[in-house]
Design brief:
single chain, about 350 residues, nine-stranded mixed sheet
């Protein structure tokens, strides 16, 4: 069933999503076991933060949706300690770290009070040019707090290279995708066991992604059948043709490692979530401001058209006068819409 939301008097059912480490010769390597977790890496020096790495190469075949579906995922998640105002709003917030292909990925969990089991929502942040000095609690906290207060167990990883997570291979931002897929596998393996995921329900998993995170969420959704519902908020394109030409070159330090990477039209078709919408049955909520100066509204309009053509369950809301991050009543409306969306599709 396709759905239409009508907040702010402007809802559009259209249909698609347009177009988001040092790679080995075969691209992003498969998961490897580690003996426990190391301490957080030190903050990089100013010189390191401004150095552009040399051109690298990766095997495009290792970056395709099919290849990422075929490989294995996993790791180990451990609690580090309380974070921020934990326990004051009906949930606890705890810093965690987990292994993702041998890298230490940091983040936090916001866990509702009670026995559970609770649906799980993984929240993915956007790009920040200051990623080597990023920190854990950022602009996405208001969204994680909303969801935890509404009864969702929220996991917010800092994707690789976003401090205090370690840097690692990331051709076409595929390392980010792998970090999320490893976290999903950890949820499935550790849910119900003592620890941070004791109250997690692995049968109900959602994704939320803003900007760059929205593009990553779309690729993960095309790969993992565990994802039941995804929110893409002011998302970058999920067409890797556009990202390679217009988006990734703007990321400082060749963060998504496109320098020296040669891709054919066939490669793009096999890698882009935009071309793989039939791979998932997850419900999709697309939200975008019609005055976004960073990602054009057309990106989400195209996504919505393609979702409709693919027969997917989806809702699209375009918010008048809103930019890349919503403010005021529009943001409040969006945040409530997100809670309502997950309540409907993570039952």
């Amino acid at each position: 069933m396709r759905t239409i939301d009508r907040r702010l008097g402007l809802a559009v059912v259209l249909g698609l999503l347009l177009g988001a480490c040092r790679p080995a010769a075969t691209g992003v390597p498969s998961q490897t076991a580690t003996e426990g977790l190391t301490a957080a890496p030190p903050r990089p020096s100013a010189a390191a933060a401004t150095t552009t790495p040399p051109a690298r190469t990766a095997d495009p075949a290792a970056l395709t949706i099919e290849a990422l579906q075929a490989r294995s995922y996993g790791g180990a998640l451990e609690a580090v300690g309380p974070l921020g105002d934990s326990g004051t709003n009906g949930f606890t917030r705890t810093e965690f770290a987990y292994t993702s292909d041998g890298l230490r990925i940091a983040g936090y969990a916001s866990v509702p009070q009670g026995a559970g089991p609770f649906p799980v929502v993984i929240v993915l942040h956007g790009y920040d040019s200051n990623y080597q000095d990023y920190g854990l609690l950022n602009y996405t906290q208001v969204y994680t707090d909303d969801l935890a207060a509404a009864g969702f167990l929220v996991l917010h990883p800092n994707l690789r290279s976003f401090w205090p997570s370690e840097p690692g291979p990331n051709p076409l931002c595929t390392g980010f995708v792998v970090d999320v897929l490893n976290l999903i596998a950890i949820v499935e393996a550790q849910a119900g066991q003592p620890g941070l995921l004791a109250a997690a329900d692995p049968a109900r998993i959602g994704l939320w992604g803003h900007s760059m995170g929205g593009g990553i969420a779309q690729r993960v959704t095309a790969i993992s059948p565990a994802v039941d519902a995804v929110v893409v908020y002011a998302s970058m394109p999920s067409d890797e043709r556009i990202n390679v030409e217009q988006v990734y070159p703007t990321f400082r330090g060749d963060l998504c490692e496109v320098a020296g990477l040669a891709l054919s039209e066939g490669d793009f078709a096999r890698i882009s979530a935009l071309d793989q919408l039939e791979q998932s049955e997850a419900a999709v909520f697309v939200a975008h401001g019609d005055s976004d100066p960073v990602v054009p509204l057309e990106v989400s309009q195209t996504l919505c058209r393609r979702l409709e053509a693919a027969g997917r369950t989806f809702a699209c809301d375009f918010y008048p006068g809103q930019g890349h991050a919503f403010t005021g009543e529009a943001d409040e409306s969006f945040r409530q819409a997100v809670v309502d969306f997950y309540a409907a599709y993570l039952q």
